[in-house]
Specification:
- The structure holds 2 protein chains of 2 kinds.
- Chain A is an all-beta fold.
- Helix content of chain A is 0%, strand content 50%.
- Chain A is globular and about 45 Å long.
- By secondary structure, chain B is mainly β.
- In chain B, strand 4 and strand 5 form a beta hairpin.
- Chain B is globular, with a radius of gyration of 13 Å.
- The chains are: A mainly beta, B mainly beta.
- Chains A and B meet through strand 5, strand 6 and strand 11 of A and strand 5, strand 9 and strand 10 of B.
């Protein structure tokens, strides 16, 4: 079945460091891909999305490119801030899955000043 | 828009009691989802509705769990009787149809069963 695999955390970085969180997926059909962020005590917020191959989603300095050839959707940010500390979830949505989101297990990011 | 609204934010109850979680989706969204989040299992889809009709409830753990959507602006998730292993954060989400549409999540209900 469809699935999402994320790199295990936690990821610990200093402020202004470069961030990469790896995400790969398995899906039949043509999924849309999403990154969500969850701050402590809150729900999941959409960070960015890409709906077809080679699309780049971007928001708040974060970027991810839909790579069909490598079935990947890695999240990157050039310079992280303390306020970026959160849990990040990669997810896919396909018609095959009955339109529900399938999530990875999440990656905890901790940024220190 | 106020977003997806869930209540209560926190619920503490004793084993064996009935628990009802509530959700108001974003107006105009056709789909409503219930997810459960735990440290061990991550985010699990419990059930989802399309136009108030349950489409897939294969994620509902057992018969103790039930969900309803009596109209387009309200849904409930009920656990009866509750057990300690039901302790988790329960999220409701809603969306427009289509693979491209993101889900919008509420802030969740943190359930503790003692």
């Amino acid at each position: 079945g469809d699935s999402v695999t994320q790199m295990e955390g936690p990821v610990t970085l200093s402020e202004e460091a470069f961030l990469t969180i790896n995400c790969t997926y398995t899906a039949t059909g043509y999924p849309s891909l999403f990154w969500y962020v969850q701050y402590p005590g809150e729900g999941l917020q959409l960070l960015l999305k890409a709906t077809k191959a080679d699309d780049k989603g971007s928001n708040k300095g974060f970027e991810a490119t839909y790579r069909k050839e490598t079935t990947s959707f890695h999240l990157e940010k050039g310079s992280v801030q303390v306020s970026d500390s959160a849990v990040y979830f990669c997810a896919l949505r396909t018609g095959q899955a009955g339109t529900a989101l399938i999530f990875g297990k999440g990656t905890t990011l901790s940024v220190s000043s | 828009d106020a977003g997806v609204i869930q209540s209560p934010r926190h619920e503490v109850t004793e084993m064996g009691q009935e628990v009802t979680l509530r959700c108001k989706p974003i107006s105009g969204h056709d789909y409503l989802f219930w997810y459960r989040q735990t440290m061990m299992r991550g985010l699990e889809l419990l059930i989802y509705f399309n136009n108030n009709v349950p489409i897939d409830d294969s994620g509902m753990p057992e018969d103790r769990f039930s969900a309803k959507m009596p109209n387009a602006s309200f849904s409930t998730l009920k656990i009866q009787p509750s057990e300690p292993r039901d302790s988790a954060v329960y999220f409701c989400a809603s969306s427009f149809p289509g693979t491209n549409s993101p889900l919008h999540f509420g802030n969740g209900t943190r359930l503790t069963v003692t």
